[in-house]
Amino acid sequence: MIQRPSSNAVLAALAVLLFGTIPGCSGRTATTVDGSSENQTKRVSVQLNWFPEVEHGGVYQALVDGTYENEGLEVEIKPGGSETPVAAELLLGRSQFAITNADDVVLFRAQGAEIVAVLAAVQDNPRCLLVRADSGVESFEDLSGITLQCQPGRAFLPFLRKHGYLEGVKEVPYFNSIAGMVNDPKMAVQAYVVAEPLLARQQGVDVRTLMVSDLGWNPYSSVLVTTGTLIRESPDMVRQFVEATRQGWVNYLKSPAQANEQILAANKHGMTAEVLQFGAEQMRTLAYPEETTQFGEMTLDRWESLVNEMAELKVISPDAVRAEDCFTTDFLPLQ
Fold it and tell me: Residue 202 CB: number of other CB atoms within 10 A?
Protein backbone atom coordinates (compact mmCIF):
# COMPACT_ATOMS: atom_id res chain seq x y z
CA MET A 1 0.00 0.00 0.00
CA ILE A 2 2.62 2.55 1.04
CA GLN A 3 5.18 3.43 -1.57
CA ARG A 4 8.86 4.29 -1.14
CA PRO A 5 9.61 7.92 -1.94
CA SER A 6 11.76 8.74 -4.92
CA SER A 7 15.35 9.60 -3.98
CA ASN A 8 15.51 11.89 -7.00
CA ALA A 9 12.44 13.79 -5.84
CA VAL A 10 13.95 14.35 -2.41
CA LEU A 11 17.28 15.47 -3.86
CA ALA A 12 15.54 17.81 -6.28
CA ALA A 13 13.65 19.38 -3.42
CA LEU A 14 16.87 19.82 -1.46
CA ALA A 15 18.47 21.52 -4.43
CA VAL A 16 15.63 24.01 -4.63
CA LEU A 17 15.97 24.79 -0.93
CA LEU A 18 19.72 25.26 -1.22
CA PHE A 19 19.85 27.30 -4.42
CA GLY A 20 16.51 29.02 -4.68
CA THR A 21 12.93 29.05 -3.46
CA ILE A 22 9.67 28.77 -5.28
CA PRO A 23 7.51 31.90 -4.79
CA GLY A 24 4.69 31.30 -2.36
CA CYS A 25 6.03 27.93 -1.22
CA SER A 26 7.77 28.73 2.05
CA GLY A 27 6.34 26.89 5.05
CA ARG A 28 5.63 30.14 6.92
CA THR A 29 3.76 31.83 4.06
CA ALA A 30 1.63 28.79 3.31
CA THR A 31 0.36 28.41 6.85
CA THR A 32 -1.39 31.73 7.33
CA VAL A 33 -4.20 33.68 5.73
CA ASP A 34 -3.92 37.46 5.29
CA GLY A 35 -0.83 37.75 7.44
CA SER A 36 0.60 36.02 10.47
CA SER A 37 -1.46 37.42 13.34
CA GLU A 38 -2.08 34.88 16.07
CA ASN A 39 -5.79 35.76 15.96
CA GLN A 40 -6.19 34.86 12.32
CA THR A 41 -6.95 31.46 10.86
CA LYS A 42 -3.86 29.51 9.90
CA ARG A 43 -4.07 27.72 6.57
CA VAL A 44 -2.37 24.32 6.71
CA SER A 45 -2.17 21.37 4.34
CA VAL A 46 -1.37 17.76 5.15
CA GLN A 47 -0.10 15.37 2.47
CA LEU A 48 -1.22 11.75 2.63
CA ASN A 49 1.16 9.01 1.56
CA TRP A 50 -1.56 6.94 -0.10
CA PHE A 51 -5.13 7.16 -1.28
CA PRO A 52 -7.44 8.10 1.61
CA GLU A 53 -8.01 5.10 3.88
CA VAL A 54 -8.35 4.33 7.58
CA GLU A 55 -4.61 4.94 8.06
CA HIS A 56 -5.52 8.62 7.71
CA GLY A 57 -8.68 8.49 9.81
CA GLY A 58 -7.51 10.94 12.47
CA VAL A 59 -6.94 13.85 10.10
CA TYR A 60 -10.32 13.34 8.41
CA GLN A 61 -12.01 13.12 11.81
CA ALA A 62 -10.39 16.33 13.04
CA LEU A 63 -11.52 18.05 9.83
CA VAL A 64 -15.15 16.92 9.78
CA ASP A 65 -15.89 17.27 13.51
CA GLY A 66 -14.46 20.79 13.76
CA THR A 67 -11.40 19.97 15.89
CA TYR A 68 -9.04 21.73 13.49
CA GLU A 69 -11.39 24.68 13.18
CA ASN A 70 -11.57 25.02 16.95
CA GLU A 71 -7.78 25.37 16.96
CA GLY A 72 -7.95 28.17 14.39
CA LEU A 73 -6.71 25.93 11.59
CA GLU A 74 -8.03 25.81 8.04
CA VAL A 75 -6.83 22.41 6.88
CA GLU A 76 -6.57 20.95 3.40
CA ILE A 77 -6.02 17.19 3.13
CA LYS A 78 -4.10 16.23 -0.02
CA PRO A 79 -4.67 12.61 -1.12
CA GLY A 80 -1.59 10.65 -2.10
CA GLY A 81 -0.99 7.83 -4.53
CA SER A 82 1.53 5.29 -5.71
CA GLU A 83 4.30 7.84 -6.37
CA THR A 84 3.62 10.63 -3.88
CA PRO A 85 6.93 12.40 -3.02
CA VAL A 86 6.07 13.06 0.62
CA ALA A 87 9.42 14.54 1.63
CA ALA A 88 9.60 16.78 -1.42
CA GLU A 89 6.11 18.15 -0.74
CA LEU A 90 7.22 19.14 2.75
CA LEU A 91 10.62 20.50 1.76
CA LEU A 92 9.13 22.65 -0.98
CA GLY A 93 6.50 24.02 1.40
CA ARG A 94 3.56 22.74 -0.63
CA SER A 95 2.40 20.97 2.54
CA GLN A 96 3.32 21.66 6.13
CA PHE A 97 2.54 18.16 7.47
CA ALA A 98 2.29 14.66 6.06
CA ILE A 99 1.40 11.09 7.02
CA THR A 100 4.04 8.41 6.43
CA ASN A 101 5.75 5.45 8.14
CA ALA A 102 8.68 5.49 10.54
CA ASP A 103 10.97 3.61 8.15
CA ASP A 104 10.27 6.25 5.51
CA VAL A 105 11.33 8.94 7.98
CA VAL A 106 14.66 7.14 8.37
CA LEU A 107 15.01 6.92 4.56
CA PHE A 108 14.19 10.62 4.15
CA ARG A 109 16.81 11.61 6.69
CA ALA A 110 19.40 9.29 5.12
CA GLN A 111 18.76 11.17 1.87
CA GLY A 112 19.42 14.50 3.60
CA ALA A 113 15.84 15.61 4.24
CA GLU A 114 15.16 17.05 7.71
CA ILE A 115 11.84 15.32 8.28
CA VAL A 116 10.74 14.89 11.89
CA ALA A 117 8.01 12.66 13.35
CA VAL A 118 5.76 14.41 15.86
CA LEU A 119 3.09 11.74 16.52
CA ALA A 120 2.81 8.00 15.85
CA ALA A 121 -0.83 7.01 15.56
CA VAL A 122 -0.18 3.30 15.01
CA GLN A 123 2.12 1.43 17.39
CA ASP A 124 1.93 -2.02 15.74
CA ASN A 125 2.60 -1.89 12.01
CA PRO A 126 -0.28 -3.20 9.85
CA ARG A 127 2.02 -4.74 7.21
CA CYS A 128 1.23 -8.36 6.42
CA LEU A 129 1.50 -10.93 3.69
CA LEU A 130 -1.87 -12.14 2.48
CA VAL A 131 -2.10 -15.79 1.45
CA ARG A 132 -5.06 -17.91 0.45
CA ALA A 133 -6.41 -20.25 3.09
CA ASP A 134 -6.11 -23.13 0.59
CA SER A 135 -2.46 -22.29 -0.23
CA GLY A 136 -1.02 -24.64 2.37
CA VAL A 137 0.80 -21.70 3.98
CA GLU A 138 0.27 -21.59 7.73
CA SER A 139 3.25 -19.40 8.64
CA PHE A 140 6.22 -17.53 7.15
CA GLU A 141 8.20 -20.78 7.25
CA ASP A 142 5.81 -22.26 4.65
CA LEU A 143 6.24 -19.60 1.94
CA SER A 144 8.63 -21.56 -0.30
CA GLY A 145 6.96 -22.25 -3.65
CA ILE A 146 4.67 -19.22 -3.40
CA THR A 147 4.67 -16.29 -5.85
CA LEU A 148 4.65 -13.00 -3.92
CA GLN A 149 3.40 -9.75 -5.42
CA CYS A 150 5.44 -7.05 -3.72
CA GLN A 151 6.90 -3.63 -4.31
CA PRO A 152 10.69 -3.50 -4.62
CA GLY A 153 12.30 -1.01 -2.27
CA ARG A 154 10.16 -1.63 0.79
CA ALA A 155 12.40 -2.26 3.78
CA PHE A 156 10.37 -5.19 5.11
CA LEU A 157 11.47 -7.27 2.10
CA PRO A 158 15.21 -7.31 2.89
CA PHE A 159 14.19 -8.01 6.48
CA LEU A 160 12.31 -11.13 5.34
CA ARG A 161 15.19 -12.15 3.07
CA LYS A 162 17.73 -11.70 5.85
CA HIS A 163 15.83 -14.16 8.01
CA GLY A 164 15.36 -16.68 5.18
CA TYR A 165 11.58 -16.36 4.82
CA LEU A 166 11.70 -15.60 1.07
CA GLU A 167 13.88 -18.54 0.06
CA GLY A 168 12.11 -20.38 -2.77
CA VAL A 169 9.65 -17.49 -3.17
CA LYS A 170 9.22 -15.90 -6.60
CA GLU A 171 8.87 -12.13 -6.26
CA VAL A 172 6.84 -10.29 -8.91
CA PRO A 173 5.61 -6.67 -9.13
CA TYR A 174 2.72 -5.54 -6.96
CA PHE A 175 -0.03 -3.70 -8.83
CA ASN A 176 -1.92 -2.30 -5.82
CA SER A 177 -4.52 -5.03 -6.13
CA ILE A 178 -5.38 -8.49 -4.79
CA ALA A 179 -6.71 -9.59 -8.19
CA GLY A 180 -3.75 -11.90 -8.82
CA MET A 181 -4.62 -14.20 -5.94
CA VAL A 182 -8.32 -14.54 -6.77
CA ASN A 183 -7.71 -17.40 -9.23
CA ASP A 184 -4.32 -18.63 -8.03
CA PRO A 185 -3.97 -20.36 -4.65
CA LYS A 186 -0.19 -20.08 -4.87
CA MET A 187 -0.22 -16.29 -5.23
CA ALA A 188 0.39 -14.08 -2.18
CA VAL A 189 0.37 -10.28 -1.96
CA GLN A 190 1.84 -7.67 0.32
CA ALA A 191 -1.02 -6.09 2.22
CA TYR A 192 -2.24 -4.10 5.18
CA VAL A 193 -4.30 -6.02 7.71
CA VAL A 194 -6.77 -3.10 7.93
CA ALA A 195 -8.09 -3.48 4.38
CA GLU A 196 -7.06 -6.26 2.01
CA PRO A 197 -8.24 -9.25 4.10
CA LEU A 198 -11.84 -8.08 3.92
CA LEU A 199 -11.50 -6.99 0.29
CA ALA A 200 -10.41 -10.55 -0.52
CA ARG A 201 -13.28 -12.09 1.39
CA GLN A 202 -15.72 -9.78 -0.38
CA GLN A 203 -14.45 -11.34 -3.63
CA GLY A 204 -15.06 -14.83 -2.30
CA VAL A 205 -11.45 -15.62 -1.37
CA ASP A 206 -10.78 -17.02 2.09
CA VAL A 207 -7.39 -15.71 3.24
CA ARG A 208 -4.83 -15.92 6.02
CA THR A 209 -2.73 -12.97 7.20
CA LEU A 210 0.93 -13.29 8.19
CA MET A 211 1.87 -10.26 10.31
CA VAL A 212 5.40 -9.04 9.66
CA SER A 213 5.42 -7.34 13.09
CA ASP A 214 5.28 -10.80 14.68
CA LEU A 215 8.79 -11.36 13.31
CA GLY A 216 10.19 -8.17 14.85
CA TRP A 217 9.85 -5.72 11.94
CA ASN A 218 7.54 -3.15 13.52
CA PRO A 219 8.06 0.51 12.49
CA TYR A 220 5.52 3.03 13.72
CA SER A 221 2.81 3.65 11.12
CA SER A 222 0.43 6.52 10.30
CA VAL A 223 3.14 8.83 11.57
CA LEU A 224 2.50 12.56 11.47
CA VAL A 225 5.62 14.37 10.24
CA THR A 226 6.78 17.88 9.48
CA THR A 227 10.10 19.63 8.87
CA GLY A 228 12.68 20.73 11.39
CA THR A 229 12.41 24.20 9.87
CA LEU A 230 8.70 24.49 10.64
CA ILE A 231 9.26 23.23 14.18
CA ARG A 232 11.86 25.96 14.76
CA GLU A 233 9.96 28.76 13.04
CA SER A 234 6.35 28.01 14.06
CA PRO A 235 6.35 25.80 17.17
CA ASP A 236 2.98 27.10 18.37
CA MET A 237 1.29 26.22 15.09
CA VAL A 238 2.91 22.77 15.11
CA ARG A 239 1.67 22.25 18.65
CA GLN A 240 -1.87 23.23 17.63
CA PHE A 241 -1.88 20.90 14.66
CA VAL A 242 -0.41 17.96 16.55
CA GLU A 243 -2.88 18.31 19.41
CA ALA A 244 -5.86 18.64 17.05
CA THR A 245 -4.71 15.63 15.03
CA ARG A 246 -4.13 13.59 18.19
CA GLN A 247 -7.65 14.41 19.38
CA GLY A 248 -8.99 13.60 15.92
CA TRP A 249 -7.45 10.15 16.12
CA VAL A 250 -8.81 9.52 19.61
CA ASN A 251 -12.29 10.50 18.42
CA TYR A 252 -11.98 8.46 15.23
CA LEU A 253 -11.03 5.27 17.02
CA LYS A 254 -14.08 5.68 19.28
CA SER A 255 -16.56 6.49 16.52
CA PRO A 256 -15.28 6.39 12.91
CA ALA A 257 -18.54 6.67 10.95
CA GLN A 258 -18.46 10.41 10.23
CA ALA A 259 -14.85 10.45 9.05
CA ASN A 260 -15.30 7.23 7.08
CA GLU A 261 -17.98 8.92 4.99
CA GLN A 262 -15.45 11.58 4.03
CA ILE A 263 -12.74 9.01 3.35
CA LEU A 264 -15.07 7.00 1.13
CA ALA A 265 -16.02 10.13 -0.83
CA ALA A 266 -12.34 11.00 -1.33
CA ASN A 267 -11.19 7.49 -2.27
CA LYS A 268 -11.83 6.60 -5.92
CA HIS A 269 -9.98 3.29 -5.90
CA GLY A 270 -12.43 0.54 -5.00
CA MET A 271 -12.81 1.22 -1.30
CA THR A 272 -16.10 0.25 0.39
CA ALA A 273 -17.87 1.41 3.53
CA GLU A 274 -17.66 -2.11 4.95
CA VAL A 275 -13.87 -2.22 4.50
CA LEU A 276 -13.48 1.17 6.18
CA GLN A 277 -15.52 0.02 9.16
CA PHE A 278 -13.49 -3.19 9.33
CA GLY A 279 -10.25 -1.23 9.09
CA ALA A 280 -11.20 1.17 11.87
CA GLU A 281 -11.87 -1.78 14.16
CA GLN A 282 -8.44 -3.23 13.36
CA MET A 283 -6.80 0.15 13.92
CA ARG A 284 -7.94 0.30 17.55
CA THR A 285 -5.82 -2.70 18.46
CA LEU A 286 -2.86 -1.46 16.42
CA ALA A 287 -3.01 1.99 18.04
CA TYR A 288 -3.52 0.66 21.57
CA PRO A 289 -1.64 -2.67 21.72
CA GLU A 290 -1.34 -2.41 25.53
CA GLU A 291 -3.66 -1.03 28.18
CA THR A 292 -0.92 1.38 29.20
CA THR A 293 -0.32 2.72 25.66
CA GLN A 294 -0.56 6.50 25.48
CA PHE A 295 -1.96 7.47 22.10
CA GLY A 296 0.70 8.76 19.71
CA GLU A 297 3.65 7.90 21.93
CA MET A 298 7.15 7.33 20.57
CA THR A 299 10.28 6.12 22.34
CA LEU A 300 13.97 6.44 21.60
CA ASP A 301 14.39 2.68 22.01
CA ARG A 302 11.94 1.96 19.19
CA TRP A 303 13.59 4.48 16.87
CA GLU A 304 17.08 3.22 17.70
CA SER A 305 16.04 -0.36 16.98
CA LEU A 306 14.59 0.68 13.63
CA VAL A 307 17.63 2.72 12.57
CA ASN A 308 20.01 -0.07 13.61
CA GLU A 309 17.95 -2.70 11.77
CA MET A 310 17.85 -0.63 8.58
CA ALA A 311 21.62 -0.16 8.75
CA GLU A 312 22.13 -3.90 9.23
CA LEU A 313 19.89 -4.53 6.23
CA LYS A 314 22.03 -2.04 4.27
CA VAL A 315 18.93 -0.01 3.44
CA ILE A 316 20.82 2.99 4.83
CA SER A 317 24.53 3.56 5.35
CA PRO A 318 25.93 2.99 8.83
CA ASP A 319 25.82 6.19 10.93
CA ALA A 320 23.77 7.96 8.24
CA VAL A 321 20.91 8.68 10.64
CA ARG A 322 20.73 9.39 14.35
CA ALA A 323 17.59 7.96 15.94
CA GLU A 324 17.14 10.97 18.23
CA ASP A 325 16.89 13.26 15.19
CA CYS A 326 14.01 11.30 13.66
CA PHE A 327 11.34 12.35 16.14
CA THR A 328 10.28 14.66 18.93
CA THR A 329 7.75 14.19 21.72
CA ASP A 330 7.74 17.90 22.58
CA PHE A 331 4.26 18.36 21.12
CA LEU A 332 2.64 15.37 22.82
CA PRO A 333 0.95 15.46 26.24
CA LEU A 334 3.27 14.77 29.14
CA GLN A 335 3.23 11.03 29.87
Answer: 12
